[in-house]
Amino acid sequence: MLKIAFHPSYQHPLKENHRFPMEKYDLIPKQLLLEGICDQENFFEPEIKDSTEKYIRMSHTDAYLDAMYAVELDRKAVRKIGFPLSEALVKRERLITNGTVQATKYALQNGVGMNIAGGTHHAFTSHGEGFCMINDQATAAYYLLEETDIEQILVVDLDVHQGNGTAKIFQNDPRVFIFSMHGKSNYPFKKEESDLDIPLENDCDDATYLSILKETLPRLVEDIKPDFIFYLSGVDILKTDKLGKLGCTIDGCKARDEFVLDVIKTHQLPVQISMGGGYSKDIKDIINAHTNTYRLVQDIFF
């Protein structure tokens, strides 16, 4: 059975003080239930667990985490993150991270586990930025490497923004291969070096995007031979996205997800999926694009 991390606090600390459509975190599960893609039993509410703290602290420095948990980050650090700092926001970030770790455990059991939020790939070892405070998939990767027989991990980051924080965290760790395909002129303007970066030109259309992906991903899986995949399925590759500069359609975004999931299923690899970004002006575009990912997971894996 597909298991999906969702907690009401994914949205609420941001509801009144952020300019982007954070209501997607409430609307996605409602849409999944409405369309019959999921039942209530598919969802689980993550909890903050002491057992996860070890892996969070492998991804981030004690000094950064201690200041964040105490809500004592300096103003410069808070500006980098982009959200007003609060206890509720810190709790949200910890819940998201625990949701991804738990979804990773479900992936080992069921083939796939998902998180309505997550994909906080701009969180670095010693600071947060770009609306990211704790790197959820990096934390879950350390859980796998420390507690399971997983030896090689592939991160497939298809958010429109380069996963600079994740790239930096694992820059000297060959056990985690970072593949990032992103907008060349999108944030972050100073890119880090992933194991494989593919920067795309502005207005990159469906055909170009899918051609590059289809040439790259199967070869990577064959060459790297991962035991586990983390997929960051951001829908900010859409032409309608306010923060993205690519030119993909909702159908193209769906075709992207279908191809990635087919490759993973063909190789019988477990995968954890975090939603990442999506900032189209019309909230319906965001919800439709994200909902397609869940529909495809159900069709392909179950």
UniProtKB/TrEMBL annotation:
Q: Which family does it belong to?
A: Belongs to the histone deacetylase family.
Q: Which key words are in the record?
A: Hydrolase
Please give the InterPro entries that the UniProt record associates with this protein.
HDAC_classIV, HDACs, His_deacetylse_dom, His_deacetylse_dom_sf, Ureohydrolase_dom_sf
Protein name as it appears in the record: Acetoin utilization deacetylase AcuC
According to its UniProt entry, the protein's GO biological process terms are: epigenetic regulation of gene expression
- Histone deacetylase domain residues: 18-291
One molecular function GO term is:
hydrolase activity
**Which species is the source of this protein?**
Psychroflexus halocasei
Name of a matching Pfam family:
Hist_deacetyl
Q: Which domain of life is it from?
A: Bacteria
